[in-house]
Write a structure and sequence with these properties.
Arc Repressor Mutant, subunit A, Four Helix Bundle (Hemerythrin (Met), subunit A), 2 domains, two-stranded antiparallel sheet, 66% helix
Length: 232
């Protein structure tokens, strides 16, 4: 599923109005999350100004926000670049995510209340529509919502906060695979399988599904890194 120009803000406003910082943040983040901008790629202010018809101060503020989001880093000799995770960092972060999510599943009182299942089903129906429409921004947003609600039933706010923290940390490496239609459909189907396992109280299957669900993004990011010269 290629990223099209219709999925990012126009390079310049037809009415001449200034492009706002949130729009710049959204557009640049989109390019990073869906692989248009690769790890360690430089984000040159002049090029971004030209592309979006934006003022320098707006571009700089947008890059600052992307640093806060964890998808961009600044270095004295290189300026702003797309954040690059080493292969070891990727393995370690995903190992922690699997441990945290597995612990959350083990804490869940199964079977969970019907209202929680109904809420997850409603969120997933919205996710299905976004998948069918190939709306990658919406898929990404609803995917995050699904996982926050899914793990919230574990009953530990601190654990849920930790899961969310590591979801955010891996944001720059997590979304690449959903740009592929087959992978996107597989992840959608896994969401429904997770709901069904939660509904019947099958903890073993939940643990398997939650682990399996993490693998495509890790594998895709590592493949992208291997395709870039001198990443180690």
């Amino acid at each position: 599923m290629p990223v099209t120009s219709a999925q990012v803000p126009a390079r310049a406003r037809e009415n001449g109005s200034e492009v706002r910082v949130p729009e710049l943040v959204s557009a640049i983040e989109f390019d990073i999350l869906f692989g248009r901008l690769k790890p360690r790629e430089r984000l040159i202010e002049d090029a971004l100004m030209l592309r979006f018809g934006a003022k320098r101060h707006a571009v700089r503020r947008a890059l600052d926000e992307l640093v806060k989001l964890g998808v961009v880093v600044r270095a004295p000799s290189r300026g702003a670049t797309v954040r690059d995770f080493s292969a070891q960092e990727v393995e370690e972060v995903y190992e922690l995510r699997e441990l945290l999510q597995g612990h959350a599943v083990r804490r869940m009182p199964l079977p969970v209340p019907k209202g929680h299942i109904e809420r997850l089903e409603e969120i997933q129906k919205q996710h299905d529509l976004a998948v069918d429409a190939a709306d990658l921004r919406l898929v990404d947003r609803i995917n995050d919502e699904f996982h926050r609600v899914f793990f919230s039933v574990c009953g530990s706010k601190l654990l849920c906060d930790a899961i969310t923290q590591y979801m955010q940390l891996t944001r720059a490496m997590r979304v690449y695979p959903i740009a592929e239609p087959q992978t996107l459909a597989k992840l959608r189907d896994e969401h429904w399988a997770m709901i069904r396992a939660l509904e019947v109280g099958d903890r073993t299957e939940l643990l398997h599904l939650c682990s399996q669900h993490l693998q495509p993004s890790k594998a895709a990011y590592l493949a992208v890194r291997r395709s870039i010269p001198d990443t180690e």
